[in-house]
Design brief:
Helix content is 0%, strand content 48%. It contains no helices and ten strands.
Length: 114
């Protein structure tokens, strides 16, 4: 079955950086567009970024553009999210998921605070 396991979260100061990773298994990873989404405390799921199967066409909402960068390694079934210039409002649980499905992993907590 589909398994998605996120890692790399933690506590970081405003302006800092983190790189999240997602290990995928149970499906043909290289054939699937993938996404990162997040959920802040008390809020709904928010789209963070997506990338096509080949890994050469990412997409970002305005808040993530020029700060967040998605990438993938199809040989390793890995998805990554590099986050720069983090802000307190980026505090959330971050999840990876297939673009075509609502199913996601357990998530990794990112906390941006002094």
């Amino acid at each position: 079955q589909v398994q998605l396991v996120e890692s790399g979260g933690g506590l970081v100061q405003p302006g800092g950086s983190l790189t999240l990773s997602c290990k995928a298994s149970g499906f043909n990873f290289s054939a699937e567009a993938m996404s990162w989404v997040r959920q802040a405390p008390g809020k709904g799921i928010e789209w963070v970024t997506s990338i096509n199967p080949a890994g050469d066409r990412p997409g970002y909402p305005p808040f993530a553009k020029d700060r967040f960068f998605i990438s993938r390694d199809n040989a390793k079934n890995m998805l990554y999210l590099q986050m720069n210039n983090l802000k307190p409002e980026d505090t959330a649980v971050y999840f990876c998921k297939k673009w075509s499905s609502v199913e996601r992993g357990p998530g990794t907590q990112v906390t941006v605070s002094l």
